[in-house]
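Retro notes (design track)

What went well: tokenization of the new backbones is finally stable.
What didn't: we kept losing track of which sequence belonged to which structure.
Fix going forward: every design gets posted as structure first, then sequence, in one message. First example under the new rule, 307 residues:
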């Protein structure tokens, strides 16, 4: 099905002005209620649900786009409304640590049990932002709603019977190189608040992962693993090796080569079973040796259970 199948050309708004994303989303809700009868019947529920979602976590995704959305009981439709700003506004991103200059708002409303459809639509929009920069720029600079509609008319949304790894993975987690230093990795772990990163070569071939555990282990003498009492160490001594070499030593010899990978079409239930029954907290999406994205347990919560 085409992405444009979920669009009402009258619900594409250009040259919006506002100081906050709440201003813009409010304008979009008010305008859409005027142009779509089904939307108007549930407008109060939609307004409450969309803003409640934004309070929980921002839907600014990066690349200048935000995807506010809501699932509504008894809402017998799936609708995408689009708002394009005259000038971008600064919004907190979903990770709540970074900000983005948002130019386009894609607002999705659907029935409560249509989370799979919402996820597929969000995945399609995210792909535009990450993989089709030319199209994204054309959308941002469109002069008419008809132009926006036509630009999106060739985008397919494949509503399959199953949610797959490609739908829930995070393709924005930046991989690291075996040549990165311990210090570089430690800084990223702290700043980005991630427990680990995928390791790839210069051609984006997946090699393994580096986690907090490997960095901590680097500074520990080998014999500590078989000792019951380590009280005789003075503070700092176990990590002298790390502190001496953090600026120069690379992760090439310490990153973990064996880790769990799946391909992009792996069903969500298989991924959940690996996480629940096998205890994996991170799963990497790899196809033909190339790295595509990372799936964390939190992604299952955010993108499937609490979309």
């Amino acid at each position: 099905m085409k992405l444009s199948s979920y669009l009402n050309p009258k619900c594409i708004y250009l040259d919006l002005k506002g100081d906050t994303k709440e201003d813009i989303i409010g304008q979009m809700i008010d305008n859409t209620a005027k142009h779509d009868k089904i939307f108007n019947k549930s407008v109060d529920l939609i307004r409450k649900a969309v803003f409640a979602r934004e309070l929980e976590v921002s839907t600014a995704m990066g690349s200048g786009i935000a995807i506010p959305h809501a699932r509504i009981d008894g809402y017998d439709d799936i609708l995408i409304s689009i708002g394009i700003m005259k000038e971008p506004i600064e919004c907190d991103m979903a990770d709540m640590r970074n900000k983005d200059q948002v130019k386009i708002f894609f607002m999705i409303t659907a029935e409560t049990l249509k989370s799979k459809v919402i996820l597929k639509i969000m995945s399609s929009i995210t792909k535009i932002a990450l993989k089709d920069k030319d199209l994204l720029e054309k959308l941002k600079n469109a002069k008419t709603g008809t132009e926006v509609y036509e630009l999106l008319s060739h985008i397919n949304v494949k509503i399959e019977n199953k949610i797959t790894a490609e739908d829930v993975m995070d393709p924005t987690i930046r991989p690291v190189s075996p040549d990165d230093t311990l210090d570089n990795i430690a800084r990223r772990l702290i700043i980005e608040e991630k427990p680990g990163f995928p390791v790839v070569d210069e051609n984006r071939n997946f090699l393994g992962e580096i986690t907090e555990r490997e960095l901590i282990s680097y500074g520990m003498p080998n014999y500590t693993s078989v000792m019951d009492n380590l009280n005789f160490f003075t503070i700092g001594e176990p990590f002298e090796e790390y502190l001496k070499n953090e600026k120069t030593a690379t992760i090439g010899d310490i990153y973990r080569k064996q880790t769990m990978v799946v391909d992009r079409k792996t069903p969500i239930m298989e991924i959940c079973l690996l996480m629940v029954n096998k205890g994996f907290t991170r799963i990497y999406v790899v196809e033909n040796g190339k790295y595509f994205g990372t799936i964390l347990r939190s992604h299952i919560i955010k993108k499937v259970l609490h979309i």
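Added context from the reviewer: The mean pLDDT is 87.
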